[in-house]
Amino acid sequence: MSTAQQVPARTRLLQAADHILFEDGIRATPVDEILRRARASPATLYSHFGSKDALTAEALRIRFADWRSSWDEQVISANNDTERLLAVFDALAAYREDRQHPSRWCAFLAAATELMPEAGEIRDVLDADTALLRTRLVHLSRPLAADRAQDLAEGVLLAYDGTLTAFLRGHPRSPIEAGRRLALAAVQAYTQS
Amino acid sequence: MSTAQQVPARTRLLQAADHILFEDGIRATPVDEILRRARASPATLYSHFGSKDALTAEALRIRFADWRSSWDEQVISANNDTERLLAVFDALAAYREDRQHPSRWCAFLAAATELMPEAGEIRDVLDADTALLRTRLVHLSRPLAADRAQDLAEGVLLAYDGTLTAFLRGHPRSPIEAGRRLALAAVQAYTQS
DNA sequence: GTCTATAAGCGGATAGAC
DNA sequence: GTCTATCCGCTTATAGAC
Question: What CATH number should be reported for the domain holding residue A184?
């Protein structure tokens, strides 16, 4: 059937971790479950990564890169300033459609609340995510609300975070659409008059 | 100095649990830390509550009742329809000022993501919180946007959840003010025109 | 009788040895 | 890859203080 390693163990571990940790809970998921899914042994995991935390951090870094690309694409294919700003919601929809990265709500925020890292590589990914959102939303807000771009960006970020949290809460039923509508209201408030 | 129990052990345990669990993390906090802070013994905790989960659930129920009262007060003291709808943000500010219930972001949402309860008394508190928010926001939206009250309420809920999540993310700096502004934008979008 | 202090059982999870 | 050591967290048991 398959020789030694069609897919290297390191990759299998990362995929398994990504799949389980952010869907079932980081602390709730024992290493054994990741090992079983990856069909790998503890030795392999610990020689490649050193710890469950380090594996988690690497999985988060991959997510971050993929999420950024997904957002890139949606911004590029948007065709006016408002759509470019709201593209973050389309990116979220596309990212969640993609069954490669399932998650209950948001891997980065889940790591923040479950692990509460004050420093270290996990904290770094969270900060990178926040920094990306902040700078990019401000940048995309500028054409719409020059001097109030900061405020508009903050509004869109809150709408985005509210959308993610809605998945956790289970309400409203269509979080992304609701979030997009809310962000659009912010655009209107900061552009007209 | 102090006789037997100035404050009963059961109360001390609940206060300690409330103080630590939602500030430092539910799963991250060992029972021993609650016991130390409450200056209680394991036997006392387990005779009163039966488990860490049951203690957590009771602490959440108390939070829920206090949060609801806080919101009640702010709605009552508001003096027009818009202020009544946005009172949820004033309630949040007041609740967080009150040092009695410290929390990193939101006790209910933290329980949701850390414990992922599919059923049971913890799930019930989370659902009660969501139901309270949903029904009350719809009710308060009706005077402002009769037929679109549902949509407006959804927007305010997302702004509220975004505000809570902003505490977790550490951005923006003043989440409550930003959330209030965003909710106001939703009000404007659903009332004018 | 209620509570505290101490300690031990027990399962589970991480980590490392072979 | 199997197996094992170690640790940690929840829970229960014991003994004693007020």
Answer: 1.10.357.10
Q: How far is Cα A86 from Cα A63, in angstroms, rounded to an integer?
A: 21
* Model confidence pLDDT, tens digit, residues B11-55: 999 999 999 999 999 999 999 999 999 999 999 999 999 999 999
Residues A37, A47: Cα–Cα separation, whole Å: 18
> Can you list the alpha helix ranges (DSSP code H) found in A78-174?
81-97, 107-115, 121-141, 149-169
* Residue A39 within a domain: no
pTM: 0.96
Supply the DSSP string of B57-73, one letter for each residue: HHHHHHHHHHHHHHHHH
Residue A67, helix vs strand vs coil: helix
Identify which of A110, A130, A171 has the shortest CB distance to residue B169.
A130
Tell me how many domains chain B contains. 1
Question: Is there a domain that residue B119 lies in?
Answer: yes
For CA atoms A112, A115, A121, A123, the dihedral sign is positive
As ranges, strand C nucleotides with an atom below 7 A of a protein CB are 2-7, 12-18
Minimum CA–C1' distance nucleotide for A31: C13
Residue B97 lies in a domain: yes
How buried is residue A148: exposed, middle or buried, by Cβ count under 10 Å (0-12/13-18/19+)? middle
